[in-house]
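Researcher: I need the complex structure. Ligand is adenosine-5'-triphosphate. Inputs:
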Amino acid sequence: MNYFKKILKYALPYKKYAGLNILSNAFYALFGTLAMVSLIPMINVLFGEGEKVTVKPDLSGADSYIKFGIDSFNYFLTQKLEHDGSEGTLLFLIVIIVSLFLLKNFFGYLALYYITFLRNGVVKDLRNDLYNHSLELPLAYYSDQRKGDLMSRILADVNEVQSSTLSFLELIVREPLTILFGLASMFLISPELTLFVLLFIPISGFLISQIGKKLKKHSTKVQEESGVLLSTIEETFGGIRVIKGFVAENAFKKRFSATTRRYFDFSNSLMHRQNLAGPVSEFLGIVTITALLWYGGNLVLVKNTISGGAFIGFMSLAYQILTPAKAMSKASYSVKRGNAAAERVMSVLETTSSITNAPNAVSNLNFSSDIKFDNVSFKYDKENVLSKVSFEVKKGQTLALVGQSGSGKSTIANLISRFYDVSDGAILIDGIDIRQITKSALRGNMGLVTQESILFNETIKNNLLIGKENASDEDMIKALKIANAWEFIEKLPLGIETNIGDSGNKLSGGQKQRLSIARAVLKNPPIMILDEATSALDTESEQLVQVALENMMKNRTSIVIAHRLSTIKNADLILVLRNGRIVETGDHDSLMAHDGNYKKLIELQSFQ
Ligand SMILES: Nc1ncnc2c1ncn2[C@@H]1O[C@H](COP(=O)(O)OP(=O)(O)OP(=O)(O)O)[C@@H](O)[C@H]1O
Ligand SMILES: [Mg+2]
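Model: Output:
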């Protein structure tokens, strides 16, 4: 219940609807009970039974209001019978019964009508919170967690929570009230019989709770597996080109069917347990009813303490309270499943980001002097990926990072943007530790061009606007020109309004890179971080990208993870990395003069 309680705070803004729902449900329960009770006079009229009251009852003479009410009604009926005969009275009673059922169902609908706003409102707010919180989570969370799992929490688990909120309200308001009103009327009809019914309820309650016990465990398994399912689908569609290219369809089919198989098994055991609830409570219900028939039949036939009509009315009421008892047991399963889902939802919301703004962090940074790495060590998991890295870049300089694959170049870029925090040492910008600068101030000073172009299924314009929200078309065209991208966009029939497809896949590799560069140029940050793409481009597009990069780096401080000789040659400072350590520093000429790692790298990789 703990997690579910936390979710309930999402229902608070909609408490007005919960109130209206409760009110409507109270009327629903009231009219439901009255409808059943109204059967009694009808049956009595049908069989010519029932109490004849010929003297108009007097309130002061009656023991209670209830007695007065019943007597008044009977007096009224007796009069009506004398006046209109049984046929007319029957018709009158039927009109009453139909109206009561109509009212009952009207309020039932009204209750659902109001609660719909609450249920869907909770879904909306929870999803928004989950999405916003996911955006706050550090990159490390995404490398640890499956994306599909997060998606399944935002989609499936939130739905589960939604359906269980309804069950919860049914559980605490609608059904208990129905039972309460039902029991009260039953008690009025025959206290003896009611006590007899009450004996059965705890027994059924115990048996039913046994079924619910393992439900939460099963439900968690099912939801987890649906996360794996979504991950597999997401990865498949993302990598469809590779899967087809490597004819790996069968391997993926196997992987997928293994998940669906597990999902099948888990769902089966969950549903089998749930399905057990209905038959068990139905059977327990009928046992109660037959016991009542036997015991009550005795009262009617042998002892003659209650009328036949009252007995049938009593039985209908008993059945009426057994249905909510059944519904309550079902609802309590739903709430258990909802609790499991709520736990998964809350665990995302309660994951705190390790990368947070310090209490008195600097919030307006205008990069003016230098970037400094001071003895920085870093590990993603256990092993150090960077060890005691120190260097300094002055404003306006270009720093090139070179080194073998896996030597830690992209990691350095990740650390400057504070996607991760250093494990040891410090990174200083203008002498301020970047952990003492707000994330938005820090990242506002930086432009990022990643190793793979990351573009969205949007128009060129909207992709660019991520760089600068309020950029004018002129600004965009200027940036596109600097990035050498205007020449191809100009030729598109829709120009910057062209949609570039999923991940920008309607563009060529070089075009994608130039568009990513334009996006960074548009932002116009003082510091540019550039992870040069290693993907081989043809010479022409290579040159186009090269020109774009050179244009971009003009008058800026740049940290470039360089694979192209021309970029490296132009750099003011080159760091040669090996296994996370700086092994050589200097400019191109001085490093070439020294017969070391750098020279070997240049020769081995035969840069252009
Ligand atoms: N998210 C991560 N979690 C754990 N280890 C990681 C993660 N990212 C990178 N690594 C490890 O850190 C090391 C450095 O990786 P990095 O991406 O910095 O290399 P790189 O120099 O950029 O290589 P490349 O030239 O191939 O891009 C590698 O050994 C890699 O396995
Ligand atoms: Mg890299």
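Model: Summary of the prediction. The CA atoms of residues 31 and 534 lie 74 Å apart.
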